Amino acid sequence: MPDIPTESVPVIRGDEPGSFPHSVLAERHPAIIRQVKEVFPHGPERRRALDALLRSCADGVIEPLPADADARDRDRWADWGMSEYAGRSWYDVPWLWAEGHFYRRLLDAVGYFGPGPWRGVDPFRPAKLAELDAPETDEELAALDGLDALSADERTRSLLHGSLWGNRADLGFRLSGSGGDAGGEAAALVADDSDALWSLLPPAGAGTPGPATLCLVADNAGRELVPDLLLVSHLLGEGRIDRAVLHVKPYPYYVSDATPTDVLDALRRLVAAGGAAAAYGDRLWAALTDGRVTVRAHPFSCAPLPYSDMPADLRAEFAAATVTVLKGDLNYRRLVGDRRWPPTTPFAEVTAYFPAPVAALRTLKSDVITGLTADTEQALEGSGERRWRTSGTHALIQVRT
Ligand SMILES: O=P(O)(O)OC[C@@]1(O)O[C@H](CO)[C@@H](O)[C@@H]1O
């Protein structure tokens, strides 16, 4: 447990006008609803439901799940705190909870769980596919051909950084030593425990203690998931891992979070790309077909709660892995707890509850931060860059072995 008792560290809420969390609830969520209304020709019933959610976001309260919700889902939300938060303003409950619940309500409004024709239709799919089809994705995949010229270690580093910066959703496979980018990127890393990560996953023949399993808890689809898949494929190819479990969301979440369908779309994109990208894709395809790689969509992946509350079955899965790598900002908030931690609170202490080694690969897109040295914190605060916590210009690789 951290030296500071966790309960004494304030939980982040969206109740402070002008703060980032407040702007997400007051501006981002309504914008998402409007966008969904534009992209799909929903009929009057669905549009009314979306308008009702818009009104609720402005001045409504959390409401219990609708009467026709699946019973298992109701039970889950009961476990996840619905009875405590129903009737309270979106702004007065933990921000993490309010956001997670918003996506559940949005899916209700578009009929995602209903019996009608909109059942299972991902309201964010058009945007996800557009990103996969964008010319930038072609450029990024073509850049993979250049990785052959690098040493194995440099290739590993490049692919790790591709996955890391993919979380900013403007991925570049920054080839080590390829120019100005590399220096800027290094300076933008506020913590870099990558040596500790590689000590857990040494290459084949370098004293590997036994079969290594990587759990990769993915974040966004499209241009983040593609480099995540490349990294997994590379680690398999290098013999650094024998198996991988890719955790994705069971339903559309936080606009661009990856679902099983998105994994298939990204994999097909790789396989069809030709060149080195296709070789990475083919290796992953083979590993999926023979079971070395599996895809999981655990309900808790969409829970509005920190991982410290994870259920026993998920805990057992993470406990069995050599290391679990959590991607992205939301997973970081859930891993360390969505609280106003003093930035120098040790990462190892706030993740001590995690049942096995754990790593975070994240660009900074919300206020939560732990594990900084006092010098780094001082440099960031003194940099004049007011939004270093939320702008996505900084990133971290933190590992608890
Ligand atoms: O998990 P991701 O994709 O890196 O980031 C999710 C995010 O954009 O969503 C939240 C705002 O809605 C913030 O926590 C965070 O910035």
TrEMBL record:
It comes from the Bacteria. The keyword Transferase does not apply. Residues 25-376 form the Damage-control phosphatase ARMT1-like metal-binding domain. Pfam families: ARMT1-like_dom. Coiled coil: none annotated. SUPFAM superfamilies: AF1104-like. GO terms for biological process: DNA damage response. InterPro entries: ARMT-1-like_metal-bd_sf, ARMT1, ARMT1-like_metal-bd. GO terms for molecular function: metal ion binding; phosphatase activity. Its cofactor is Mn(2+). Transmembrane segments: none annotated. Gene3D superfamilies: 1.20.930.60, Uncharacterised protein PF01937, DUF89, domain 3 (3.40.50.10880). Keywords: Hydrolase, Manganese, Metal-binding. It catalyses: beta-D-fructose 6-phosphate = dihydroxyacetone + D-glyceraldehyde 3-phosphate; beta-D-fructose 1-phosphate + H2O = D-fructose + phosphate. The keyword Manganese applies. PANTHER family: DAMAGE-CONTROL PHOSPHATASE ARMT1. Belongs to the damage-control phosphatase family. Sugar phosphate phosphatase III subfamily. This is Damage-control phosphatase ARMT1-like metal-binding domain-containing protein. It comes from Streptomyces mutabilis.
